Amino acid sequence: MLGMTDGGVFSENFLRSRLDVGYNRPMLQTARPKKKSQPKAPAHEKYLEAFRWMLLTRTFEEKLASMYRGGRITGGVYIGKGQEAVSVACGIFLQKGDIFAPLIRDQAGRSAFGEPLVDVARTYLGSRAGPMRGRDGNIHRGKPRDGQLAMISHLGAMVSVVVGSLMAKRGRGEKNFIGLTTIGEGGMQTGASHEGMNIAAVEHVPLVVVATNNHYAYSTPNDREFACANLVDRARGYGFEGYELDGTDLAACLDVIGTAVKRARAGRPPQLVVASILRLAGHGEHDDFSYVTDDIRREPFAIDCLQRTEAVIRERELADAETLKRWREEAAEDVENAFSAAQREPVPSGDDEDWSAISRRDLVDEIGEGGSS
Amino acid sequence: MSITYLEAIREAQAKLLHDDKRVFIYGQDVGGSFGGAFKATKGLAKEFPGRVLNTPISEDAMVGTAIGAALEGMRPIVEMQFADFSSVALNQILNNAGTHYWRTNIPVPITVRLPSGGTKGSGPFHSQSMESLYAHYPGLIVMTPATVEDAYTMLIDAVAIDDPVVFCEHKYLYYHLKADNLPNDGMPVGKARIARPGRDLTIVSYSAMLHESLSAAEEIAKEGFEIEVVDLRTVKPLDTATVLASVARTGRLLAVGESFPWGGVTAEVIARVSAEGFHLLDAAPARINAKDTPIPYHPNLWSTHRPSSKAIAAKARKILRE
Ligand SMILES: Cc1ncc(C[n+]2csc(CCOP(=O)(O)OP(=O)(O)O)c2C)c(N)n1
Ligand SMILES: [Mg+2]
After folding, report:
1. Catalytic residue at B59?
2. Who's near B154: CB < 8 A, 6+ residues apart?
3. Do both B205 and B169 map to the same domain?
4. Do residue B68 and residue A357 have CB atoms under 8 angstroms apart?
5. φ and ψ at residue B106, rounded to 5 degrees
6. What pTM did the predictor assign?
7. B285: cis peptide before it, omega within 30°?
8. What is the CATH number of the domain that holds A205?
9. Dihedral angle at the C-alpha atoms of A238, A243, A244, A245, nearest 10 degrees?
């Protein structure tokens, strides 16, 4: 049902793809980005749709950052500026029945996978109507019943969770599903991340891991994060198929991540995509990122993917100025609506809260007078 | 028929696998013809193909995988090879499984089996009792069965519960305890049991320490004192009402646990009785735990490190004299 027995293989599908791993190892793709990558012809059918999710995300997160500066958000604000092209490609190919475990810079992907913007606003504002009901905030949100897992902070922890969900789906006889999770180059250095990638390959689940090297983990640059020549080389070590990606190029993101999703769906081994970009904001909005050097800001991977996409659209006349203007206005309107709706909703109150961390109310520990109230 | 505590755990899992298609077992060496480091899953992989799965040595990912499967409707049982190695999975157990219901309103029905506690010669890394640590965090139910019957029915209960359960099974009891047969029903989860009635002193205990406490009570009975022994069964939730009712009968309290002394189950028992039953006490409540050092290898050291029936009896006599 769930895995392979010692006596042999219990599913035919499993057998076929298992053999593939061996045969296809030499096919590991490590197409390196050309030094100064030219935008590809935006032939991808999802190019404009993806651009609109990116635009919505940028507009939303700019508003969020300004609310943060105005003291209107409790706790941190973490945005994905510069990472929208990679992220949107993570969400846009997913279907109902798929599992998505995003991390902190994945608003574009979350939106493309179907997260309503109002749920984001609700979570940042602590609305009781939001998915987290004020119990958790900011990027720590999800709707597991809709395949949107709710990340915990601890980086790398979600990889194996997706593996388990995929095993259960396989066990139930579901078909054509995949899981996709994202990770930063920093999070890739945790033990959990390593254990998760390894167990994914051992269980041979249809998983895509999209790693974004944005060249910093908080303030720490790559040379203090890892010492291997190239992170994508780890794909071979884990038994994944691996690809590199210029994350500033939307067409490439759609192409490479779209391909990885397809291959996972087709029963190939787990897929690793390593995208290269520069984080164009602080780690969070509290951070002025003054540690990002001028040299690195001049690197080709420091290009703003949203500007680059819009330039391509204008250059190739994929949309006229009028249309672009309308899209921008619609994005602003969506953002406005999300925040104003969330702002009208009630926030939780300590007195009315149901302080039970387990679902079995009859098994709640009655701490009594000796402990908490 | 005679059945051991370990066999009861195996039988419970066989029944669970048989009765419930959602159940699977995930752990190191549990599968194949091997059946686990202690043979708690012996023969199950063959009987239930594809549902008793060997894993890499990846405690974090084992529990993470179980969480993901549970979210998709499965009822995974994770076997840690030794409780001690569950430290590697603490993050998944405490921060992922333990927070999930509170955060999302969706519980995570996983059962993590921890072969716990000391046996001779096992040393610092194969002897730990971690129930106090797991009980400290919100969102988990922590079971510590002390009898063959409880090992069986409580494991079945654990899998039925929608919330994550840490099931602390004691390795010392694996072979030492025997029962004639397995019950169909046990006591309700979360209810403590009066293992021996008495009137002069209440000893609150659980897991292997229950048996040390019972032999201490036996010994002291010869001196004319009747000790009441409470078996907590689950340490979270902690059945404070049963403990208080016992102290109301005896006026004296000794809490006995095998985990390390700083904080923990015994401290919790004393705190609750002191706060809620101070007027019931005729003497200062006391507790006895393992020593505040890593668990030693040599039997001479080990038998002094953990509370023995002798040490428990000595402490009990002291309280009775007060
Ligand atoms: C296990 C763990 N340690 C530390 C942190 C604190 N932390 C949150 S984000 C972050 C940097 C993450 O860097 P990276 O994975 O590269 O993602 P990026 O922020 O660059 O997108 C750190 C250190 C954490 N969340 N988890
Ligand atoms: Mg980074």
Report:
1. yes
2. B143, B145, B167, B186, B189, B233, B234
3. no
4. no
5. -115, 115
6. 0.94
7. no
8. 3.40.50.970
9. -130
Q: How many CA atoms lie within 13 A of A363 on its CB side?
A: 25
Domain match, B59 and B28 both: yes
> Is residue A256, in this structure, part of any structural domain at all?
yes
H helical segments located in A228-320: 234-238, 250-265, 294-297, 305-315
Contacts of A132 in chain B (CB under 8 A): 103-104
**pLDDT band of B100, cuts 50, 70, 90:** very high
Q: How many domains does chain A have?
A: 1
C-alpha B180 – ligand 1 centre gap (Å): 55
**Helical spans, DSSP H, in A70-156:** 84-92, 107-113, 117-125
Locate the ligand 1 atom nearest the alpha carbon of residue A187 and give its number.
15
Q: Check B50 against A4: CB less than 8 A apart.
A: yes
Instruction: Please tell me which residue of chain B has the smallest CA distance to A137.
Output: B103
Of residues B250, B262, B226, the one with CA closest to residue B133: B262
Provide the pairing of β-strand B227-231 with B165-170: unpaired
* Dist CA A253 CA A92 (whole Å): 11
Residue span of the structural domain in which A305 resides: 25-224+244-347
Residue pair A139/B44 in contact by the 8 Å Cβ criterion: no
Other C-beta atoms closer than 10 Å to the C-beta of A350 total 6
DSSP-based three-state secondary structure for B203:
strand
Q: Which residues of B touch A359 (CB under 8 A)?
A: 101, 107, 162-163
Closest residue, chain B, to A174 (C-alpha): B72
Residues A90-109 pLDDT 10s? 999 999 999 999 999 999 99
Task: Tell me phi and psi for residue B254, to 5 degrees.
Answer: -130, 125
Closest to A151 in 3D by CA, of A190, A105, A112, A191: A105
Give the domain range for residue B162: 3-179
Phi, psi of B280 (to 5 degrees): -85, -15
B-chain residues within 8 Å CB-CB of A172?
Answer: 72-73
B139/A358 CB distance under 8 A: yes
Which amino acid makes up residue A298? R
- Among B79, B100, B126, B149, which one carries the catalytic annotation? B126
Residues B166, B78 share a domain: yes
Of the candidates A143, A165, A357, the beta carbon closest to that of B138 is on A357
DSSP B80: P
CATH number of the domain bearing residue B160: 3.40.50.970
Question: Is the CB of A157 less than 8 angstroms away from the CB of B96?
Answer: yes
What pLDDT does A371 receive? 58
**B71 contacts on A by Cβ (under 8 Å):** 144, 149, 161, 164-165, 168
Protein residue with its CA nearest to atom 24 in ligand 1: A154
pLDDT, tens digit (0-9, with 9 covering 90-100), for B151-161: 999 999 999 99
Q: What's the gap between Cα A241 and its chain centre?
A: 19
Q: Is B126 a catalytic residue?
A: yes
Q: In what order do the strands lie in the sheet with A207-213?
A: A99-101, A179-184, A207-213, A271-276, A241-246
pLDDT tens column, B253-278: 999 999 999 999 999 999 999 999 99
Distance CA A84, CA B220 (A): 73
Residues with CB under 6 A from ligand 1: A 104-105, 153-155, 184-187, 190, 214, 216-218, 279, 283
Report the alpha-carbon distance of residue A147 to residue A99 in Å, rounded: 4
Question: In chain B, how many domains are there?
Answer: 2
Chain A residue with Cα closest to B188: A363
Residues B50 and B124 in one domain: yes
